[in-house]
Design a protein that fits this description.
The chain is an alpha+beta fold. The protein has two domains: about 110 residues, Rossmann fold (3-Layer(aba) Sandwich), CATH 3.40.50; about 150 residues, Tumour Suppressor Smad4, CATH 2.60.200.40. Strands 2-1-3-4-20-5 form a six-stranded mixed beta sheet, with helices on both faces. A six-stranded antiparallel beta sheet has the order 7-6-19-16-9-10. α6 crosses α7. The longest helix has 14 residues.
């Protein structure tokens, strides 16, 4: 092994496509002496694995979905270690935004280049969020989706349709540094990156390297408007309107609502108000795939897209 080659620890979530992850593990174990593969066996096991292996490795590769990425990012936040992703989950929102795909040879070549981005992390009541979190409609969908026996896009679509027909908008008060916003909302999103996953882009202007997050406010809407909204969401062409507005801020944001069903990076969680949201002072190094448009441009406090 070359002295300059990084030591790589690959952490595999076996629940993210069992047959495919077994095949991937065999390929990795036969590949190079600087690659170690470990498999999780229970929730948040990846955090313990990183603690055990921290000093022996330079790059930590998440094989799984956004939940696996969130766990590993939480453990690596504020360190000089690098995070990479081999997407094996459902939505893969973080991986899509940072340009990771299932080309294993390219991933290893990218890691070997040594390039990285310094990315932001959000804190939601102290819990780390790496790409998009929220409350309201998408929070209800996340909780409904988690109850289904299978994952994948079609189950996710089924949840989005079923929840819409029984959903009631939430009442909320949102306190920013120079503004308080009160009202009823279809959903409230906190975006560090542009998309939920599956290519659904809620905040195309979001930049996870600029020290800001996007507060996305979606007002209640009729069925016809929801159909248009959903189409534009997946086409990446959402624009500010009477139903949709944005704020760019480093926080803190204080959110008060009786709704408790939030999601953090797509995973369902329960939170009690008030909920404090801010950008963490600690950053994370993410392997640079060269497939992003991130730059450190300044943003206005409110924008239209």
């Amino acid at each position: 092994m070359s002295r300059n080659e990084p030591n790589i620890l690959v952490i595999v979530n076996p629940n993210a496509g069992k047959r495919k992850t077994r095949q991937l593990r065999r390929k990795l174990e036969a590949r190079q002496e600087n690659i170690t593969v470990r498999q999780t066996t229970y929730p948040r096991h990846s955090v313990q694995i990183i603690q055990e292996e921290f000093d022996r490795h330079d790059v930590f590769v998440a094989v799984g979905g956004d939940g696996t990425v969130n766990e590993m990012a939480t453990a690596l936040l504020g360190s000089d270690k690098k995070l990479a992703v081999y997407p094996a989950g459902s939505g893969n929102g973080f991986a899509r935004e940072f340009g990771f795909n299932k080309n294993l040879n390219k991933l290893m070549a990218t890691i070997a280049s040594g390039k990285s981005l310094t990315a932001d992390a959000m804190l939601i009541n102290g819990q780390v969020s790496m790409h998009v979190s929220g409350v309201g409609y998408d929070g209800e969908v996340a909780h409904d989706f988690a109850k289904l026996p299978g994952r994948g896009f079609w189950n996710y679509l089924f949840s989005t349709i079923r929840v819409f027909w029984q959903y009631n908008p939430i009442q909320a008060s949102i306190e920013l540094e120079n503004e308080t916003i009160n009202g009823r909302f279809f959903m409230i999103n906190l975006a560090n990156t542009a998309q939920f996953g599956y290519g659904a882009r809620i905040a195309s202007q979001a930049n996870p390297t600029d020290g800001l997050l996007e507060l996305v406010l979606v007002r209640p809407m009729a069925l016809w408007a929801f159909v248009l909204f959903s189409s534009r969401l997946f086409l990446g062409t959402l624009k500010s309107s009477e139903h949709l507005s944005y704020r760019s801020t480093a926080g803190p944001i204080t959110l008060k609502t009786s709704a408790r069903q939030f999601h953090r990076d797509g995973d369902p969680i329960l939170l009690e108000s008030p909920v404090k949201i801010e950008i963490s002072t600690q950053k994370i190094k993410v392997v640079d795939t060269g497939n992003t448009k991130f730059c450190n441009n300044s943003k206005s406090s409110e924008k239209s897209v």
